[in-house]
Structures are given as C-alpha cells and as structure tokens.
Amino acid sequence: MSRFHPIIAFGLVAFVACSDRPTAPNPPSRSLAATLRLNAANTATSVPASVTWEMTAGSLVASRAVSPIVAARAYGLLGVAQYAAAVAASPDDGNSNADPRAHYYVMRGAVAGASAQVLKYLLPLDVAAIEAQVEREGSAGPQGIQNQFARGVALGRTLGDVVVQRGRADGFANPNGTPRVWDPSTLPSGPTIWHMDADATPHVPAGFQFPTMRPYYLTSPSQFRSAPPPTDLGPSVSEVVGIVNARTPEQEAIARFWNLANGSVTALGYWDQQAAAYIAEYGLDELDAAHVFALMNSAASDAVLGCWDAKYHYLVLRPWMVAPSDLPNAKLIIGRPNHPSYPSGHSCVSSASAAVLKEFFPAKSATLDQQVQEAGMSRIYGGIHYRIDIDAGRVLGQSVARWAIDYDLERGLLEAVFPTGSP
User: Fold this and answer.
1) Same domain for 192 and 287?
2) Last residue of a domain, one of 119, 143, 168
3) Residue 359 and residue 29: Cα distance in Å, rounded?
4) Torsion sign (Cα): 268, 273, 279, 281
5) Residue 91: what pLDDT?
C-alpha cells in the first residue's frame, strides 16, 4: 500500500510521519520489535488515549446539545487529528534500545494535543475544561515521563492545527468563521415538496449547507446520490401509519433508544461507544484504536454530506406532512426533524459506521447488521420516516463507507487531509 509522508512545520523542525496503516486489524506495518515495546509500555494506562478523548468529545457534544449532523462533522475532524498524531508519534522501528515508556507517552501526549486543538475549535466554551484534561494527563507519572508527554502534546497540537484549518475551509461556515446564511429562494415550493414546519426553531432548514461542503474521500457529496424516490408516497405513508397505530411498548422503547437527538452523544457518538467497546475487547493499541475512530468517523461524516445532498435534491415530504390527521404530534414520540425525509440520516450514519467496524471486527458483523436494522426501524416506529428512506440511507451509507475503506487501503486516509509533501 502507499505511504503517508506529510511534512508538518513545527517551529524550525519538520516532523515526517511514518507509514500509514492498512484498514482492518491485520498485522501492523511497524516492526514486531516496535510493537512489543509499545505493548510492554502499555501497563500504566490500559485505555488508549484516543478512546478517552472520543468519550470526552461525546460528553461535551451532549452537554452543549450539539445537533447530530454537526456532531458528525466534529467527530470526523477529531478522529482524523488523533490518527495523524498517533502515526506521527509512532516509534522509529530502528530504535530498538529506546525506552518503551517514552514512546508510549509521546504518543499519548500527541493524541491529547491533537484532540485538544480540534475540540477547542469546535467547542470554544469548553476550552478551560479541555486544557485541564491535557494538564491532568500530563501530570501523571515521574518527571521523565511528563517530559515525553509534553513532547507529544507539542507535536499533536501542530497536527491538530492543520486539521482545524481543514475544518475552517470545509464549507460549514463562511471563510471568516461567521455562520452561513440560508437563502429561502433556493428551495422550491408546492404541495408535494418538503417545507419547514411553521413552528420550527430556528426557522432554518437543518444542514442546508451540507450538500455544498467538502468531503474527505468522495469526489462530491452527490457521488452516491440515492435513486429517485417513488412519486406516489401513498403506500409508504400507509405503512408508517399502520406501524405507528399498532406500535408496541417494545417498539416505542426502540424508537426512544435510537433517537439520539440534541442533548445526547448523537448517533455517531453511539457508534463511537460501540467502537470503544470492541477496541477494549480486542486489546487494540493506540495506533489501531485511533485508526478505527478516524476511518469510521470520517466515513460517516462523508455519508452525512451525501445524505443531505439527496435530501435537499429530492425534497420528499415527511410522513406527517402527507397524512397530518393520521400522524398528529401525539404519535410522533421522537419529534419532527427539520429537514426532508428521503433518505434517512440515521440509516446513512449507522450503515457507514457499521460497515467500517465490520472491516476492523468481522466477527461482530451479525451484531452490527442487527443494530443497523433496528436503528432504521426505530425511525418508522417514531413515525418520522418511510421504509424507502431507511433502505436508501442504508445503500448510501454502505457505498460511502466502501469508498472510504478503499481510499484508505490504496492511499492512506490521512492523504485526504495531508497530501503527500504538503507543508
């Protein structure tokens, strides 16, 4: 596979990252000696730093009530920054006499520094708490180890800043950082065309800018645009009404469990938790753990862009818009999303996330498939999606994930942010 050689200026010193990693937990590309050194050092802290910081991100996303699609962008930037830091801080295979703890703490520091820079950009109200976490992690252990951790933090901050620059240029906001403004004239109107609910707050379509944002791996957000939906929604809405009217307590519980709306870790945060559990079960080290998060979160972030491209291209009415008397608010137990119905964002994110996790953890495929199925049906149980939305979202998410996986195998995922030889 190809090698990754981003040259990042740090003061007057250039750091050259070592080779990128293959997709899936295959034998690592670094030497056995380097692997044994890191494993031997992995005694003071059993949880990879990337796991700790991903869980921190989830807590901050929940506490700030970040929307699921905005959170997906955040998790993507964080995962890529962590992996870039872990790769750059990987031990030199030729340095067999180096202190394994030094390598280990440099890498932990690098992940912490990269995570802090990205999270401070995304969540500026939490800067003090983020920096306090870096300080706590760095103050543990003897002085020599603290120095190694600090070296890693400096490297990680540099790489994190590069990822932040990528975030500033991805089209989510204006180049000067101000929010993009929605132009109402960009959406057509008519009885068969999706429109915002009159009481939507804020009165702006959710994710209106996502179809024009910059993906990591896709050639454009429209690359895997879903096939046109049926023009007659009658059969689809009848199925939703029938399911909602016959909804069992178990189905209601499933709808509420998978809602993962503002104030939660969100859907992608849930899949991060699932990834963390598998990382612990299989004992993945820092580099492999960061790889899982980076590929899954960036692929899911691209899937969101693709999903919202299709949503605003087709502008399919939500079920309650087609049959308001059959689906009153009292039956919509998980609310009314402020964006078009087709395809389902939940299915796009879940399918993309699960597809990547199956590459790393193939023994978990059946469980992951079952979770994706349940996540999709939860939206029908809640009365907010058709089956066609779920099916289209699943196809789109899987297509995006496959594209991202192949990109990683052929070029290394970091090439999407750090092109070879770029400063």
Assistant:
1) yes
2) 168
3) 17
4) negative
5) 73
